[in-house]
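Two proteins, back to back. First:
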Amino acid sequence: MKYRHQFRVRAPLPALAEFHAQSASMGAITPPPISVRVTRAPARLREGDEMAFTMWLGPVPLKWVAHIENVSGRGFSDRQISGPFQEWTHRHTFAALSEATTEVRDEVQARLRKHVIWGAVGLAMWLGLPLLFAYRARQTRCLLESKT
């Protein structure tokens, strides 16, 4: 399965890349009613780091560990090491459109688990991606555009 989303932010590419490199940014761009608690990660994510977190979908905790890969000033990937999917890789790409505007491209490739419960949880999460990424775009704009 593949999902793609893109949006523009009135913020320079270095500011956007730095924002996404902060492990705390994940909670800031996650929509309610989902709550995220990072349990293990450096404050600033770099190549080879792991980020462990729990996503609470109401009363249901989903533990997830992501490996950070392919880090550059123009993006990075996070690959699920453990979590609700059989496979999950999320590529974040940043492209400067001007000195003050950056395009963010997200591409997710995933495979559901062949499990009655986890397959259903993964499918529900997958179907919610358009809302998740719309919220992330809105929050990223709110957080970064107010600083420029």
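And the second protein:
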Amino acid sequence: MDDQELVRKCIRRDNNAREELFRRYSPRLLALCLRYTHSRAEADDLLQDAFIKIFDRIGLFRWQGEGSLMRWMSRLTLNLFFDRKRRKRLQSEVDIGPLEESLTDEPDYAETLQVPPEKLKSMIQGLPDRYRTVFQLYCIDHLSHREIARMLGIKEKSSSADLSRAKSLLAKQIKQYLHEN
């Protein structure tokens, strides 16, 4: 059954279709949740709440071609995550001091490839929450600074500055790792 038919059946509250939607898309949505949360348990909770919201709002979905269902569910999941953060006031403000003078000491691509993927993931997870979030939304999820600003309730310039700071911190960590290994 294709995605369009699956959505039509979910709108009619067909439980078999709902199970199929969950089976088909939960692994990718769980991976998305794991990128933004601090634990597997938190990711599982977010995924469960996301599917409740997906099933509740499936009638609002509009087909826009292949992949549009996954994009819609991903956006809904991310919005749920950020709404939670705002409500719980976990979105802490980060000191917006002067930007690092320059990223000229930034490691090149070949050097970055010398860092094991799990170590690089750990470095990203170790960034301050706001920097990590902006970095992931921009570099991994390919959102614009305008979209990020709207989603996080910050200014576009803040998004851009946070990305620059995240890259600077990562560059320092990568250089340190390469120096030590």
